[in-house]
Amino acid sequence: MSLETPPLGLYIHIPWCIRKCPYCDFNSHAALDEIPEKNYVLALLRDLDQDLPQTHNRRLQSIFFGGGTPSLFSPDAIHTLIESVKARLGCSTELEVTLEANPGTLEKYKFRSFKEAGVNRLSIGVQSFQPAKLRVLGRIHSRVEAIQAAEEAHKAGIANFNLDLMYGLPEQRRSEAVDDVRQAIALQPAHISYYQLTIEAHTTFSIFPPTLPDEDAVWEIQCENQSILKDHGYGQYEISAYARPGFQCRHNLNYWTFGDYLGIGAGAHAKITDAETGVIQRTSKIRHPRRYMETAGTFLNYATRSQIPTRDRGLEFLMNALRLVSGFEKKEFNRRTGLRLSDLQPAFTDCLEEKLLEETETHVRCSEAGRGFLDAILTRFVPAQYVAVRKRTKPA
Question: Which CATH number fits domain 8-253: 3.90.1750.10, 3.30.479.30, 3.80.30.20, 3.40.47.10?
């Protein structure tokens, strides 16, 4: 089975942060001692060199530095990594290079240097502008520092920056959530990520659960703030992503359209398609930073390696593509998975009849109502399993 060769992105994981937040389930580690920046950069490059043959000389469309807190690294280290990547891979002339950053005092004054290093997009982890909410979320910045970080991004000449916001926070009032969104808009970011706090397993919040707003309150917060974002020119293009025209995150769009990506760094994940053989492979790297650095560049560095079975590709594609407001192109489903929409029956027709999905001549997408309970829709497409879904009038 031959497949289309998808676009290629590169994810670089930097696992250290100042302090682990109680809601965070990412592979992040509090920097109790000095971060081994130089050794980690060398390990990342060994890791990349080992994975290069999988790219089949494709041009890179995007680089995303995630964490942890990548902005804890020096601009020199980030510059070394960007230039080393460019020396090894052909890159798009419009290469998007995103760096996640926290609004801390030390980090925001490095924004101009990060731009000079080759970063052209920032993602700033604000989460809230309310002092009490920042404390309960374990954030180490203040409202003032969050505002200053956005202002520093503008001063540094980085027009393309994202602000991360969360809603449904412990004991959050509607007025507080609205203030967060209005304050974010006032700072004129190109992009706003706005997502509901969920309690993930193996986090501090899962052990000591906070009191969260009830379902109706969260629904009201979501609807009101979606309307405010729309009125101010931030179009929703994905479940939790809003952007001004032309500023959608290209790296994440590649994820959501079942594109390919290399993943280097402790705990980094990758998905790579071999178009000639029709094999789609997922890998992940060892999570612990010290062990990762010891094994980088060897096959001992892989924590997992597996192929996506043909029977699972439809579900995996839908899990990503149905997050997009515009949905997906029918031809793209075939090109990226090797399957046909008829392989999704009877679930596909049932979802259309129940107006959970909408179909045009060329595209499929979730209906406005369907977007509210995407997880329930997806259960219908689990291979060899057909799950009846309770009809709902609004999302959980």
Answer: 3.80.30.20
